[in-house]
Design a protein that fits this description.
Number of helices: 22
Structural class: mainly alpha
Helix content: 55-70%
GO biological process, one term: lipopolysaccharide biosynthetic process
Radius of gyration: 25 Å
GO molecular function, one term: pentosyltransferase activity
Distance between the termini: 40 Å
Membrane topology: Multi-pass membrane protein
Keywords: Cell membrane, Glycosyltransferase, Membrane, Transferase, Transmembrane, Transmembrane helix
Oligomer: single chain
Order of helices and strands: HHHHHHHHHHHHHHHHHHHHEHEHEEE
Shape: globular
Strand content: 5-15%
Pfam family, one: PMT_2
Length: about 500
Amino acid sequence: MLDTTHSRTTAQKLSLQVALAIIFGVTLWRVLMLLVNKTDLFVDEAQYWFWGQNLDFGYYSKPPMIAWVIRFFNAISGSDSTFWIRISAPLFHLATALMLMRTTRRLIGSEEGREIAPWVGVIFITLPAASLSAVLVSTDTIQILFVTIAIWAFIGLTRRSSVLEAVILGASLGFAFLTKYSVLFLLPGVGIAMLTMRSARIAWRDVVIAAVVGAIVVSPNLWWNFTHDAATIKHTENIAQWSKDGGSNSLLKHILNGLSFFGAQFGVIGPVVFYALLWATWRLIRGRSDDREKLLFWLSVPVVALITLQALLAKAYANWAVSAYAAGTILAVWLLYRLTKKGLSTSLIIGAVVAFVIPVLTVFAYDIKLPNGDLIMKRYVGRAVISREIADIATDAKTPVIVAEDRDILADLYYTLKGKPFRIYARNFGGFPNNYYEQNFSLPADVTGPVLYIDNGPFECPGSQVDLIKSWSPPYGEMKGKTLHAYRVPASCLAPKPSAAAGTGAAEN
C-alpha cells in the first residue's frame, strides 16, 4: 500500500492554479510558435492533409480520424496553411493534460489525489513526446486523448454501473481505434487486470454496452477495409511483419532492434518518467503495489512490453507505445510523488527545457545545424522547394501532367502545388499499391501524351523517346545529396507491365 502520509511530507506541493498556468502557458507558447514555424509539412502531415481533402472512412495506412480532424480545422478557418493543419496538436495535448488530471483524482481520490493531479498535468504537457508532436500533426496526439477518456470511464465503471459511462468507454475506445490501430495493444493488459483483480471488474451489462457502442463506431472503417482489399490492415501487417532472416547476424539485429526501441522510450517520455515505470514494474514483482497502482500498471507497461517484443521479432517505431503513456504518466507521477522528493521537479525541468527548445528549432529551422553541417530540422525542410522546382520544370517543358513514384515527393506536390494548373499522379506498378497515391491517384490509362516523370535514378523506355530535361540535387533538407531527374516521357512508358509483381507497400509510420 502507498504511504500517503509520507508522500505529503516528502513530495513537493504544486497548487492547481500554478499547474493550470503552466499547462495553458505551454500550450499558448506552442500555438504562438506555430504561427512563425518555418518548417514544411512532413510527408505524413502532407498526406493526412490530402486525405482530409478526400474524406472517407479509411485510408491506405491509417484509419480516418486524423483526416477528419484536419479537415475540421481547415473548414472552420477557411485556410490550408500549415498553422491550421497543425493547430489541433497543442489543443489535443491541452485537453489530454486536463483529462489526465480528472482521471487521477477519480482513481486516487481523497486529498492525495488532489495533490497529485496537478503534477500529472504539468508532467504530461512537458513530456518530450508531447513537445515534439505539438509542432506537427500526428495520430498519437489524437489517440492519447481518447485513451485517457476511456480510462476515466473504465475507472468509474469499476465502482458503479452506468449506462452513460459504458457508452463513453465504448465510444472513446472506438474513436481511438479510428485514430490508430495500436490501441489494441491495450487490451491484453485490460484483460489481465479484470481477471486478476476484483476491483478492476465492471458489470457485464456495461461490458456489453461498451462493446456494442465500440463496434458501431469502428464498423465504417472495418467495412471500408472489406471493400478496399483490406488495404490498411495489409499495410499494417507489412510494416510490422516478422523478419524471415536467419543466422547469428539476424539474431543480433533483432536484439539491437529491441534494445533500440526500449532505449528510445527514455527519450519519448523522458528518463525520469520511464525510470519510474520500470520502478513500478519492480514494485509489482515484489508485491508492493496496491490495486490502484496495479491497474495503472496493467494499462501501461504491457503495451511497452508487447511492442518491445515486436521490435525484437521485426521492427517497431519509437512512438508505437504512446497509448501506454496515459495511464503510464499517472503511474509514474504517483510513484515519484511518494518516493522521491527531487524526481518530479527534475522531470519537469527536463521537460520544460525540451518544451521550450523544440518550437524554437522550428522557427530557426534553416539556421541551426549539427556539427556535421546538416540542419538539425532537415527532415522538415526542403520539401516545398523541390515541388516548386518541379513546377517550374513542368511549366517550361509545357507538360502539365506530373508523375512520380516517391511518396515524399508526391505528398508535397499535392500540397505545395494545390490550386496550380497541374495534374499530379503516382506511377502504377501493378499489384498491391505501394502507397495511398498509387492506390487512388495512379496515372490514368486515358492519359496518352507526354508527361513529366520525376525519378531519383536513370530511366529508360525501350522503343520510345525519353528526354532528360534536368537533373539536380536539392540544396538542403532530407533529400540533400540525392540526385533527382525530370524526364519528358510518353505516358505509355509508365503503365504497369502485365507481369508486374505486387507492391511491397511504403513504410508509412
